[in-house]
Amino acid sequence: MRRAIRRLLTTLVIVILLLGGAAWWLLSYIAPDDQLDMSYEPIDVKAKAMDMVKKRKPELVLTESDINHLIKMHLQGKYAASGNDGNGDGAIELAKDVRLDGALFELEEGRLVAHMNVTYKDRIPAVLDAVYRLERRDSNIALRPQSLSVKDIGLPLHLLETMIIPIDLPLQDMVKVRDVQFQKDQIKVLLKLELGL
Question: pTM for this structure?
């Protein structure tokens, strides 16, 4: 009887150690490799557009850095407007128990790859990778979700929503977006001037 109890306890300890080791491995696997933040420099699209008008070149070029700042600015504004401004360090609560701590956005032709550091229930840090298809929607850029994963572990796509990033043009009644070209490391917005005479 003692031998059976001893074997049972030994087996129980081994199972607990294996489960603890597996949990530790999983947490270290999904943890972010890079320190990202939500800081951004305000991008004045109107000033860029006015500069374009002065140069008489009907195109507005948004670099990968500009897009990074525009998306972070949009996210901060969107969640601050909804009464959710994170915890004061730039982090944003995206959903119940999920906080966005930092992000980096990379442009590829027709796609945007988002690397996001998140924290679940204030305890479990993880890195999410999302891929969005870039589309023009009127005078805005739409980010349509294509995939979502934690490292190589796929997650359901319904966890993401389409984001609309506004291109805030000056004199919108006179300056219209003619076309948007999604290039490797920039987005080129071709404009046309409409003078109602």
Answer: 0.79
Contact predicate 140/109, CB 8 Å: no
- Scan for tokens 């609560």, then name that residue: 93
Residue of 100, 106, 107, 125 whose CA lies nearest to 37: 100
Cβ partners under 8 Å of residue 153, min gap 6: 30
Q: How far apart are the first and last CA of the chain?
A: 100
- As a whole number of angstroms, the distance between CA 70 and CA 48 comes to 13
* pLDDT at 2 (0 to 100): 81
pLDDT band for position 81 (cuts 50, 70, 90): low
Q: How far apart are CA 137 and CA 154, in angstroms?
A: 28
List Cα–Cα distances, 8 to 3, 20, 76, in angstroms: 9, 18, 54
Distances (CA, A) of 59 to 18, 64, 127, 142, 144: 59, 16, 35, 19, 24
